[in-house]
Design brief:
The chain is mostly helical. It folds into 2 domains: 173 residues, no CATH class; 80 residues, no CATH class. It is built from 11 helices and 4 strands, in the order ααααβααβββααααα. A two-stranded parallel sheet has the order 1-4. Strands 2-3 form a two-stranded antiparallel ribbon. β2 and β3 form a beta hairpin. The protein is flat, with a radius of gyration of 24 Å.
Length: 273
């Protein structure tokens, strides 16, 4: 896949020579796009079929936070209230793990589609962010699995009521609802952990700068709290668990943007010299 790129001037003249004559018609772009989509669907479909046969083990892995919260595997009891509910839950588990495991391959297909239309220096600049995306997503997912979700489950379990002289109120969790809660938190944390990547990319194309991010800090705090309240269940554990890392990531983004600005200024000084 190639893209029609205007011939640059000045320092980018060499890059313009690099892409000269690589223009391709629209039909060729569409054929290349179809090929990349087919590769992606084939990868996800193959993993989905394989994961469906071990969906029970995968769901048992997702029950890890629940087991950690109860402290006793015998106290972990889930139910399903419709004949087809657990079957569709297995399908959801298989699809979730298939997409998650295939994500690096999907990202590689996207990069392979757009890379021929980029300058060499743009490809080099894009690759670190492509590699940082799954790492940050895994960091957010790990925070959910090992910290936030066990604390949230303990909070919910503490609300049970029971005794010899009082009514008994016990938590009977449906498999689909538990899976929905886990996947929501994993996706929410994984996506929100992409904040440094997004802000740094915006800084590279000079849409934002570090001074703007500093001046927006108080608004960012409000926005983070709103996002945490919207994406997480209505309990303080998961909301605080998402809000605090996002605020920390925002501060890390300011440092990352400042490094981008310093590198740009240094390159400008070298070019002037």
């Amino acid at each position: 896949m190639s893209d029609t790129t205007p011939v640059p001037s000045g320092d980018d003249a060499g890059d313009g020579d690099e892409l000269a004559g690589t223009e391709a018609p629209l039909l060729e772009h569409l054929v290349e796009l179809r090929k990349r989509i087919m590769y992606a669907l084939l990868a996800v479909g193959t993993l989905f079929v394989g994961f469906f046969f071990i969906a029970d083990h995968l769901f048992d892995f997702l029950l890890g936070p629940f087991k950690a919260a109860t402290g006793n595997i015998e106290d972990v009891r889930l139910i399903y209230t419709a004949p087809q509910e657990y079957f569709f839950t297995q399908l959801s588990v298989a699809l979730f793990f298939a997409v998650a495991l295939a994500f690096p391959f999907l990202a590689a297909q996207i990069y392979a589609f757009v890379a021929p239309g980029l300058y060499k220096k743009e490809r080099k600049a894009f690759l670190p962010y492509l590699m940082a995306t799954p790492v940050l997503f895994l960091a957010g997912a790990a925070l959910v699995y090992y910290v936030v979700m066990p604390l949230a489950m303990r909070f919910f379990l503490a609300m049970e009521v029971g005794g010899p002289e009082s009514i008994s109120i016990q938590m009977e969790t449906r498999v689909s609802e538990y899976l929905g809660l886990v996947m929501t938190l994993l996706l929410a944390f994984g996506v929100c952990f992409q904040l440094p990547v997004v802000l740094t990319l915006l800084a590279r194309i000079e849409v934002i700068n570090s001074q703007q991010l500093k001046s927006w800090r108080k608004y960012a705090v409000v926005a983070v709290l709103v996002v945490a309240a919207f994406l997480t269940p209505p309990d303080p554990i998961s909301q605080i668990g998402l809000a605090l890392p996002m605020l920390l990531l925002y501060e890390m983004s300011i440092l990352s943007v400042r490094l981008v600005e310093r590198r740009r200024a240094r390159n400008s000084d070298v070019a002037d010299a």
